[in-house]
Amino acid sequence: MSERDSLVKDSLHELIGFVDKSTVRFVNHLIDKSADIEEFKTKVKNALGTDDHQKVDNFSHELWSQLRPNRSQTKRRLKTKTIEEVEERVDLTPHETNASQKSGSKGTDSSRRGYESDESMDSSEEERVRDLKERDEFSERLKLKDKNKTRNIATNNDKKSYEEAAKRLKLEAEDRKKIVPKLRVESRRLYLEKRKEDKLALLEGDIADEEYLFNDVNLTEKEKAGLEYRKKVLHLAREHDRARDLEKVQRYHIPSEDKDSEYVEVDDTERAPNAEQKKWEEERLGIARLRFGAKDANRKARKEYELVMDAEIEFVQSLTIDGNHFEEEDEEKDEKKTKRQTLDETRRSLPIYPFKEELIEAIREHQVLIIEGETGSGKTTQIPQYLHESGFCNDNKKVGCTQPRRVAAMSVAARVAEEMGVKLGNEVGYSIRFEDCTSERTVLKYMTDGMLLREFLSEPDLSSYSVIIVDEAHERTLHTDVLFGLVKDIARFRPDLKLLISSATLDAQKFSEFFDDAPVFRIPGRRFPVDIYYTKAPEADYIEACVVTILQIHVTQPLGDVLVFLPGQEEIEQTQEILQERQRKLGSRIRELLIRPIYSNLPTDMQAQVFEPTPPNARKVVLATNIAETSLTIDNILFVIDPGYCKQNSFNPRTGMESLIVVPISKASANQRAGRSGRVAAGKCFRLFTAWAYQHELEDNTIPEIQRVHLGNVVLTLKSLGINDILHFDFLDPPPHETLVLALEQLYALGALNHLGELTRLGRRMAEFPVDPMMSKTLIASEKYGCSEEIVTISAMLSVNASVFYRPKDKAIHADTARKNFFQMGGDHLMLVNVYNQWAESGYSRQWCLENFIQYRSMCRARDVRDQLEGLMERVEIELKSCDSDNIVIRKAITSGYFYHTARISRTGGQYKTVKGQQTVLIHPNSSLFEEKPRWLLYHELVLTTKEYMRQTIEIESQWLLEVAPHYYKDRELEDSTNKKMPKQLGKSNNDLNRVYPKL
DNA sequence: GAGCACTGC
Fold first, then answer.
1. Which InterPro entries does the entry link to (predicted)?
2. Which of A505, A523, A541 is the last residue of a domain?
């Protein structure tokens, strides 16, 4: 309950002695609707029928004085803000209207013209003005709600969140208790290691000297024994280091005799802790020795395994090919160094520390600063702290720092809270979807980029922030790209706002140009070197090549885990099979090889296996998708195999079709992958393509997401931020014109924009939902059809994507049967409701999921999304109501959002044609309607895989389209020979005809 | 009768 509600409640209790939810709502309503206090008083008197005038007077005054001033303040503030915005954007205004008219008239649909001419100009104008007024009133109500809400984790307004916070903070405190001694131990350990390393180096020097000096001198037995002993000690110490580096929990073990010889060939110094700097310099000076060692090992192994290795790939090292040129050009590239991961060192030891003063000075001097720093420089954790120390958080202003991923936001915030010695959620907090861990005391706020984007909706000028840091900007997520344009815009009319854009190499110059030539501040990082090997000739079959390379590494290289990047689940399973087969054939001739797949759709417990430590004397091979590129880090990887492909989603605005296809990766991505091999020690990366291909065939950077996806939601968000001229919005890399126009057209057809391209009340409400515009329209339409409960479930289930059903290859038949058991009359959306409801009935049971081949994790996520959507439904003033599974109304509600996505069976049968666009499409074989082949279909999405498929379909009646989107469909379009001609009024007048389906 | 990379709100 909000603060406002409790105030009303208390006052009411005093006045009439009882209180309930609807009375509170009613009084709230009266306050909002009354023009002045007298009106309010009269209304209260009339409504409550109480005679005690004094009491009513007190009651009214108290509420009015407490609630209304706020409101008028909000209003005033809002107004000035709007004026400011208008002034700021005044130069844009002329083409705003032009642009939207242009985009409007660009659509050649005759239906659209029909829609406009349906109403006379006057009434449509009146309608528009009224709608805009309602829209603004709605926004205002939202603002008020937000203001009163201020659900704070550190206060006990909201009991539930308070308890949660208390629990979390307690855990946090316990963690710290645990961590401090751990830190002490760690620092002692580091010291000892350093000391040991020094001693070992001394010993090594001694031995070398001795051998050199007394080479041809006859030593006594004792002297010889002494030398041998020292050699042995050195060897064992090195051995121990290596064993520990490769395997965290592994204890020292005595290498067997035959393995001994193998180790001699490896450059042991590279394994020693704290030797990376030395190693780095060494490599710079000339790595011949190292390369020779590796080659030698190769040759030796070849001899030994001649019979078992039926194929072998020849690799060439990049440095041999590209020489100095390559090295110089890419001096600061990731592949050459890797970050030192342990931040357990004190803050002072971070590479950023020496730059502190300089950095603060630069920030004071310039409004926008690009920070180019490699991962491991400490920028994410340190810069906000420096800003805090330098007084950027005075006057209740915050420093905001965005991250592309939730985990990053959480863990970095926790880390910084610890460093500053405060409780997480107080001075340092984080804000991610489903979890707001901040309070009014929060000054350093870490959040996901999408979260800051949502914050723009309630605070368009970000007035509570003094600094915004956009971290990991080089990743170019959809949200960061949109943020760029927005923060650039507000920076113009808020000179006091500082902007820091932080990026890893390469892109810095581009960012600088975008932000009006903002200066670039460079911070060095620390990384281990990584050797890059390319194939001599292109590989035709990358899966086969992967398998061969894995085995080649396994038999020729020292112990150390291998990470293989594959495009998808299918390739991973295939590789795993082949590898297991080969392994069986080789039997005991090779060491143990543990194969561990990982991809996001893999159940959590199986994912966890990837992180289990490798047993001694074995090697772990991780077969991963792109998930291992940025999202998760696997320790102790020394070798990376990179076939150079990934699966990429791209959206074709002309066909409205998404495709997920295997494409070559970019150079940036290849370097990122290579960097994963050198996180704990110097690593090696084997690229299954040629150096020539790397130089000439790979793009420098991956195409940014914003140019590859459907932008419906982005455009709606921008519109509701008052940016009308979408087509000229300042994008760092503008998305294709067609994508924007398509998004605008769809929003217009959905009723989110009026014919002038202005946001309507409906559009404003739609923008509140973090879903596709078509889905948010469906959510709002569900009110009319009285099935909001079900639609919220459908929306949540669809948002977790296709990852609801788990289908392991070996139990495919069982999984399919389980899935078929959920089928529902009407189509896939109804099946999803069925799945969710059954799960809910099982008490959200994990066991139930296991039995039914459902992914527990996805269901939990759906539940989270569902809870959030429920909250938002209340926010946009829609009551939650169930239709008791009347599947007609559910499908009608979906149709009113997805009337764009319809298809009709074609004469040949089996195939479908989209109603608009006449594209040939097929029902996805996983759909419950695959065998049924109804005449009219609505699909959730169109995907191009091997064929053009409609995924998630429901059966609809063609006349529903006229009912829900009369402006979009003409009668004629909905008739054809397969569909017997219907009387025009049928859809509306004879609803009972639709009820031929049994209820669920 | 196919086969869904990865985030995020």
1. DEAD-box_helicase_OB_fold, DEAD/DEAH_box_helicase_dom, DNA/RNA_helicase_DEAH_CS, HA2_WH, Helicase-assoc_dom, Helicase_ATP-bd, Helicase_C-like, P-loop_NTPase
2. A523
Is there a domain that residue A77 lies in?
no
Give the residue numbers spanning the domain of A910. Answer: 769-974
Nearest nt to the A598 alpha carbon by C1': B5
Residue given tokens 């090919």 in the structure block = A321
Q: Which nucleotides of B are covered by protein (CB under 7 A)?
A: 1-9
Query: What is the tens place of the pLDDT at every residue in A951-967?
Result: 899 999 988 988 888 88
For nucleotide B3, give the residue with the nearest CA to its C1': A570
Instruction: Provide the CA A794 to C1' B1 distance, Å, integer.
Output: 26
- How many domains would you assign to chain A? 4
Is residue A271 in some structural domain? Answer: no
| Cβ-based neighbour number of residue A911 at 10 Å | 15
Tell me: do A576 and A486 sit in the same domain: no
Can you tell me which residue has its alpha carbon closest to the C1' of nucleotide B8? A450
Nearest to A789 by CA among A860, A856, A886, A858: A886
- Rounded alpha-carbon distances, angstroms, from residue A307 to A259, A297, A311, A315, A894: 19, 17, 10, 20, 63
Residue at the smallest CA–C1' distance to nucleotide B7: A405
Looking at A252-287, list the stretches that DSSP marks H as alpha helix, in order from N- to C-terminal side: 257-264, 276-285
Using the CA of A455, which nucleotide's C1' is the nearest one?
A: B9
Nearest residue to B4 via alpha carbon and C1': A802
Q: Report the pLDDT value the prediction gives residue A51, as an integer from 0 to 100.
A: 59
Residue A648 CA, nucleotide B4 C1', distance (Å): 11
Is A164 part of any domain? no
Same-domain pairing of A609 and A462 = no
Q: List CB contacts of A43: < 8 A, sequence separation 6 or more.
A: A30, A34
The more confident residue out of A471 and A189 is A471
Per-residue pLDDT band at A227 (split at 50, 70, 90): confident
Instruction: Name the residue closest to the C1' of B9 by its CA.
Output: A770
Under DSSP, is residue A365 helix (H, G, I), strand (E, B) or coil? Answer: helix
pLDDT at A586: 86
Query: Does the pLDDT value for residue A70 go beyond 50?
Result: no
Question: Which pLDDT value is given to residue A968?
Answer: 84
| Predicted confidence band of residue A279 (pLDDT cuts 50, 70, 90) | very low
3-class DSSP state of A400: strand
HEC readout, A333-350: CHHHCCCCCCCCCCHHHC
Amino acid making up residue A505: T
Phi and psi angles of residue A499, each rounded to the nearest 5 degrees, phi first? -120, 130
Does residue A475 sit in the same domain as residue A561?
A: no
What pLDDT score does A160 carry? 43
User: What is the nearest nucleotide to A772, using C1' and CA?
Assistant: B9
Do residue A499 and residue A591 come from a single domain? no
Domain boundary among the residues A507, A523, A539 is at A523
Q: In CATH, what number is assigned to the domain containing residue A475?
A: 3.40.50.300
Average pLDDT for residues A621-632, to the nearest whole number? 88
A835 shares its domain with A873? yes
Model confidence pLDDT, tens digit, residues A595-605:
999 988 888 88
Assess if residue A599 is contained within a domain.
yes
Nucleotide nearest A943, CA–C1', reads B4
**CA(A813)–C1'(B1) in Å?**
13
Q: What are the tens digits of pLDDT across the range A488-513?
A: 988 988 999 999 998 876 678 889 99
Residues A540, A499 within the same domain:
no
Phi-psi domain of A148 (left: phi exceeds 0; alpha: psi -120 through 50; beta: other): alpha
Does position A926 have pLDDT exceeding 70, yes or no?
yes
A833 with A969, same domain: the answer is yes
**A375-CA/B4-C1' distance, Å:** 31
Same domain, A551 and A516: no
What local confidence, expressed as pLDDT, does residue A675 receive?
86
The average pLDDT across A113-117 equals: 38
Distance in Å from B3's C1' to A45's CA comes to 67
AA identity, residue A860: C
